[in-house]
Each structure stands twice: as structure tokens, then as C-alpha cells.
């Protein structure tokens, strides 16, 4: 027996009680039973998104919900500012390009962030910009962007703020209404600790106004139509029923823990992971504001980071993730989001010690683990 | 205890072994393990679609895959012929309208079909038509359209044939390559007896040529990009991993039964259901070519069909479906697709006897069941 550990930045482990809830016999989506399920889930989602607006489910990966956010709020020829400091920032640009939306990239080196001041200056320079598109947690670099600061500059502007919170919902605080974020996009397979295949668009009042005039073609991703259907008690298209059943379980778990505790847990695990990685002499890839969802670390000089993840997999049966795009070979990424607790990150760091040793690197065994434990004691 | 039965025309019951396969710990989609899973599943899907072309998975409901078929093969201003003889035929039109594709509807009353000759005449009258869009099994009316006949007239024309096989894949014979169908769309929650949330586009060589020149905007549904990613061993976007794991189980089950036997089983169950319904004095809604996936029956004079499904639910804990759109109140629909066997349809018909009696209709108890049994004996 070689025990398996999934420690990638999504999909994340699914709790056994949630797996079993989803393994219950299939129910139909046009029944009073499903309607009751949706009513409970929708109320829980609103609390989780920290909003009073409707959270519209989309049966797709997170990228589908990103595209839904674009096609429902913009028109061809519109200009959007895009915070591009990682692979998912690039994805916003690719989606816009596919739909004839002009993008103004606000570029930062991968691992860095773009300040709210830069966004404010760009808005001043592009007063016709209709939207600012950004990530909250940029999963490719492990950086947490300053959504709160950006929202403070967009809320008084003509641009709506659209935030990809796929790897921050139920991980890092994102007060949609209080901060003034107009659209929040999320997925099921990260902080929600569910299988991938269900995503969400929470659409605030300023954004709903845009939906009424946005002219990009949409059918499957038509959020206004879906909202009308749901208001009448059933979804337009057949939803991801099983994941929705699992979501009810997850929302109950998160409510029981309390949202503030959920954020604190992730921050604690992230801090411990960073301390462990640095205690082993490695440097973090995130130069600013590391994300509580994952830790991206730079491979030691002379070591291909792909070797590190292969060793994690072959010697220890642990799945972590490598670098994407230009970061491939340089970076490896440890996820600590969702159904994750202290001894998971301790395991990840202990395995890192073993992996570095196997790759011929000098390792002071226990140094990483000790740093992890110190964080636990201090944060206790 | 009130035993529950799901007998709607999708989602359908999921076999317990498949539920448990999907309840296994989550795996990551960029690993050798997932690649091996996809290679097995893709080979099985090709056999199931009866094609040598690539079957591209789409994480969405069936409607998402319908839209994917349109946006990948057509351009704004193109003309498409649409077989419109039910709610899902209307859906093709709605998708085209959303994208600026002009439709020429080939209309038949709900419950009827459109002959291949009419399609040939329409193609002759619209030589610029770029596509014919149709359902194989029209789930709203219970009619099986003549895909083979239509393919015979489209394959020599400038129009590609795009078939919605959501409720016919693994239910009714659809020989994509042999008949010359260009795109086949399907979903997970019907004949594949999986939860909803995974769909497919099988794209033949004539259609791939179209993809290269089709100009409708697409990103999440970009089938050519997804095909390139999969050829390199991983998906572009995070897929519906759990359903994909379940699909491997289902494909093994279907292979073991044999595709011809799968079709024969559905035909037998459909014939038995129709015999049972008619023996109780009700008439079928499908005037031509009833689908082996479901039986749509007309409620007795003076009875609202919504009452029939409510009774099925409240008295017998059985979920069936009602009529959609203009058929609401007139029609009820019994599904017999996927993980369904003789005694399921016998139960559905026995319950219909009870339901009609409860609604004050005269019932010769056992007449429906007897007719079902006779079909079983004759078909044995």
C-alpha cells in the first residue's frame, strides 16, 4: 500500500462525507426536492460570496464562468483593462481576444502584483474602459492580488470590476458587496473541495445593468436567462446535479467552521508552508502578497522543477503541480486549499525534504518540518 | 420506507458500481493516471459513437455541446436548416439566433417527423445552406428522427449534418461514419447513465474543415484547441474528472453487453412501454417512429398530465416527466434509457394503472402489465 495524497492547487481532495453524499441515487432537477436543494445552496452561496445578489451556477469549468462573465457584460469593440501577472491573467486576455474585446494589459512580472494605484492611473488614461478583469488568487504564481484596493478605484469609475476568485473563494476574504466588486467568478474544485465541473458567476447590480446592454452572443452562458429560470424554481439547462448535492454538504461544513475561521486556517497553512520551504533554503516565487491557496516555490539552482514533482509522485505518491508556461521547469506548486489541515502541509514539507535529498541536494532533515511546527505553535 | 424510482427521460439512474467509482478519491487531470484514463475512455467513446474521428469532451450540459457544435462550424450570416418538431429542435434555432446564424426551419407538428425527402428539397431550395441541424431522439415528443436518411442527402451536399444525439447515444443505432454524419453531440446523463455535467462533440473530417474557417467567437468551447491539447496528453481546462472516472465504468459495462444488445434492450423496453400504455386506452404522442429512449403519452381526455406526474411522485415516489412548452398539461413522458431493465418498465406501467385509478379513470387492472409481459415473451 502506498497511500495517495493530492496536494496540487486544484482539484483538491474531496471529504469522504461529500463523496458519499454525491454517491447517493440521482435525483431529477425539475422536482420539489431539487428546488429545495437549490434554495438552501443559493442562500449558502450568497453568504460565502458575501453578497445579497444572485449567484448563478454554470455547469462548466472555471474558465466557462470566466467566459460567461465576459460575454454577459461586454460588447465587441469594448475596452477592458486586464491585470496580467500570470497564466490566468493571460486567460482573461485570450477570452477577450476571442470575442473582439480590446484589452489594455496591466503587466507585472510573474510573481509580482499590480497595485491599485496603477489600475487607477490606467482607468484615468482609458476613461472609456468598460471593465477591469483580474484574478484574486493567481494560481500560476501563488500571488494574491489586491481586489479590495482595485475595487476602491473601480467603484467610482465607468468600469465594472470582474474578479476570478476560482482559487480564492472560501480561502481568502473577498467581501463582494462591502468592497464593491461587480462580478465574482468561482469554481467547485478549489476552496469548495468538490470535483470540478460546476462554476459560478455572482453578478452585482452594476453588472446586471451591463448585462441588459451587452451584445456579445451567448446562449448556454446567458446568465440573465438562467436567473429568470431559477427565480421560477428550476434551472434552464440540466445542471451538474451530483456536484450540487455535494455542494450542500460543503456549505454546511463551511458554515459550521465559520467563514473567518476558514480564512484563518488557510492563512495559517500557507504561512507554515512558506516557512517550511524557506527553511530548506528555497525561495518563494511570489515576491508580493503570497496567496493563502497555494505556495509556488523556485527550484534550487541546477534542478528542473519537473524533477521535483516527478519525485513527489514516484517516490511518495503525492501529486503536486509544476510551473505553467514560461515558469515550467523553474517553479513547483504546493496546494493547501479546501479540505486541508496542519498535518497535510507538514507532510508536504517533510516530503520536500526527502525529495530534495533524493535529487542530490544537501538537506538538514527536520529543518522544514521544524519551521512548520513553529508557525503552528505561534499561531495557536 | 418509500422506495424511490427515477423514471424520467434524463437524468437517469446511475448504477451503484458507477456511483462508487465516482466516489473514489479525486485524482488530478495532469497526471499519467488521468492520461491513461482518457486514452481508455476516448477509445471506448469512438466505438460508442461508431467513428474513427476524435470525440471531444466538453464540461457542460448537452446544450453547451450543442452550442459548441454551432460556434465551431458556422459563421454569422450563414444559413442553417433546422428540423424543428419539438423543444430541442427549437433549441437549435435559439442557439443559431443568438449567434446571428440564419435558420430555415423545417417544421413538423410536435409528435411528427420531417422526412429526408423534405430535407433534400430544402437543400435544393437553399443551395447556400451550410448545415442541417437536427435531433436524433427528440426528447420532448418521443420521436426518433431519420438521421440515416437525412445523412444520405446531406453527405453529397455543401451542408454538414449536425445531430443532437443527447438522448440517443447508447440507446439507438447511430452509425456516425457509416451513415456520414458530420457532428454528433451527446451528454452524460441519458444512455450513458451518468450524472449530468459532461458532454461530447464527435467531429468528422468534413466538419473539421469547417472549423478551420468558421468565425463565430469561441474560447471555452473551442474544439480545435481542446483537440490539440488532448493530442499532447492533457485537457486544456480542468475537466469533470469524477464523471470521467464514472464514464470508464460505464463504457466497460456497455462493451460487455455489446452495442447491438444495448440497442435491442432499449427497443424492447420501449415496445413494452408503448404496448402497456396503449392497452390502458391511452394514445402515444409520437405519431411516427417512436424513440427507444422514452415514451410520450397523451393524458386521457379531461385529465391534466401534470396531475399524472404529481400522482406518480406523491403516491408512488416515482419521478416521471411532463410535457414541455405547448405540450405541458397534455403529455407525460416515461423514460426507459440507460440503466433500465424489464421490471422497471413493468413497474412504470403498473404504477400508471394505479395513477389513472386514483385520478378517477376506469382501469382494467393488469391490462397494461399484461401487454408489457406479452412483449417480453414475444421478444425473448
Q: What's the SSE blueprint?
A:
Two copies of one chain form a homodimer.
Chain A: E1 5-6, H1 16-22, H2 32-49, E2 55-58, H3 62-73, E3 79-84, H4 87-98, E4 102-107, H5 116-125, E5 131-135, E6 137-138, E7 143-144, H6 147-154, E8 160-164, H7 176-179, E9 183-187, E10 199-203, H8 205-213, H9 223-231, H10 241-257, H11 259-279, E11 294-298, H12 305-316, E12 318-319, E13 321-322, E14 331-335, H13 342-358, H14 367-379
Parallel strand pairs in A: 1-12, 3-4, 3-5, 5-8, 8-9
Antiparallel strand pairs in A: 2-10, 6-7, 9-10, 11-14, 13-14
Helix pairs in contact in A: 1-10, 2-10, 3-4, 5-6, 11-13, 11-14, 12-13, 13-14
Question: What does the model show?
Answer:
Two copies of one chain form a homodimer. By secondary structure, chain A is an alpha/beta fold. Chain A folds into two domains: 5-10 and 259-379, Aspartate Aminotransferase, domain 1 (Alpha-Beta Complex); 16-256, Aspartate Aminotransferase, domain 2. Chain A is 44% helix and 15% strand. In chain A, the strands form four sheets. A seven-stranded mixed sheet of chain A has the order 2-10-9-8-5-3-4, sandwiched between helices. Chain A has a three-stranded antiparallel sheet with strand order 11-14-13. A two-stranded parallel sheet of chain A has the order 1-12.
